[in-house]
Automatic annotation (TrEMBL):
Source organism of the structure: Aquibacillus albus
Family per record: Belongs to the LDH2/MDH2 oxidoreductase family.
SUPFAM superfamilies: L-sulfolactate dehydrogenase-like
The keyword Flavoprotein is annotated on this UniProt entry: no
Keywords: Oxidoreductase
Name of the protein in its database record: LDH2 family malate/lactate/ureidoglycolate dehydrogenase
Pfam families: Ldh_2
Organism lineage string: Bacteria, Bacillati, Bacillota, Bacilli, Bacillales
Length: 359
């Protein structure tokens, strides 16, 4: 029997936690990193899931991430804070910044927490959902290393700088927006190149700035922002809020986690939290959100459309389905995790999915 590729999400999360602990990461921090990765896989964002385990470990080994670093507050008042991650894991730094943002918002009604000295922090939805659990509205943005040109430019300058928003509801699924500012994920272009397939015109440009349908040429060039100059402008604003304002890297000064082995990434984030109770009773707000969502879903549907969905609804359903039926990993990713496990005396096969028989 070959290596399994379907895994129980809780066992896989424990495996990843144990891997990071064996690599020298304090247990509670290892849990945060593993949870962030697994949640991405559960919600169908495999590019931010356990596939990142190997690069995270390598950056620890090369002293490009310092899991022992203290996360500090450099400036602070009642509603704002500037957090220095001091090059700890992005998800650990982001989680600490989120706690500060939510605490200040509960005290003052709203907060803005900026972060510098961080790393790749996973999906924005990871933080949005935690805010929703506490009945708070959250907007979180992050910058990233260069993969997109400015409109009219030729070479990468901006990251696919993501934005995420979480809003609680009552009986309906919450509103969870989590999106990059590129037209398409670079990972889709990588897959097309591996398969020898072409890509649609408009996804990317070659290294000379010319539109291309050749996936290999696209990887040597740049992905394009969504909605052209509008996506470029949004990505630039996120870079200003996450990088320029916080003292983190911005533009070409955010270092690539896969290519730069001399300098920390110095990624920046910003968290804006809002206490709903400062505007109306939480119960009333949730009732209004349910009404709003029900009205949208009751709108006339175009031919061939079975259901109108809200942002985050597909991911929420996928999470429930994968928790029930297991996370399917590509063979290459499973083999990579298996080799990592062997290095630390851990068995990936122990995390394999076994369907429970329900009587």
């Amino acid at each position: 029997m070959g290596l399994p590729t379907k895994f129980d999400w809780q066992k896989l999360q424990q495996f990843c936690t144990d891997v990071f602990v064996e690599a020298g990461v304090e247990k509670e921090k290892a849990k945060v990193v593993a949870e962030s990765l697994i949640q991405a896989d559960l919600r169908g964002v495999a590019s931010h899931g356990v596939v990142r385990t190997a690069i995270y470990l390598k950056r620890i080994e090369e002293s490009m991430i310092n899991p022992d670093a203290d996360i500090s507050i450099e400036k602070e008042n009642d509603v704002t804070a500037l957090v220095n991650g001091n090059n700890n894991f992005g998800s650990v730094v982001g989680s600490e910044a989120l706690k500060i943002a939510l605490s200040k918002a509960k005290d003052q009604g709203i907060s803005l927490v900026g972060v510098k000295g961080s790393n790749h922090f996973g999906t924005g939805a990871y933080y949005a959902l935690k805010a929703i659990e506490q009945n708070m509205i959250l907007l979180v943005v992050s910058n990233a290393s260069q993969t997109m040109p400015p409109t009219g430019g030729v070479r990468p300058f901006l990251g696919t700088n993501p934005i995420a928003v979480g809003v609680p509801a009552g009986n309906s699924d919450p509103f969870v927006l989590d999106m990059a500012t590129s037209l398409v994920a670079r990972g889709k272009i990588i897959v097309a190149a591996q398969k020898g397939e072409s890509i649609p015109i408009g996804w990317a440009v070659d290294k000379n700035g010319n539109p291309t349908t050749d996936a290999e040429e696209a990887l040597e060039g740049s992905v394009l922002p969504l909605a052209g100059p509008k996506g470029y402008a949004i990505s630039m604003f996120i870079d200003i809020l996450s990088g320029v304002l916080t003292g983190a890297g911005f533009g070409k000064y955010v270092n690539n986690m896969y290519e730069n082995w001399e300098d920390p990434q110095n990624v920046g984030h910003s968290f804006i939290a809002i206490d709903i109770n400062r505007f109306m009773q939480l119960k009333t707000f949730k009732q209004r959100m349910d009404m709003y969502i029900e009205d949208i879903k009751s709108e006339p549907k175009a031919d061939g459309v079975e259901e109108i969905l809200i942002p985050g609804e597909i991911e929420s359903r996928r999470e429930l389905e994968l928790k029930e039926n297991g996370i399917e990993l590509p063979q290459k990713v499973a083999e990579e995790l298996n080799e990592i496990g062997k290095r630390y005396g851990l068995s990936l096969e122990d995390a394999s999915f076994q369907k429970q028989n329900v009587k």
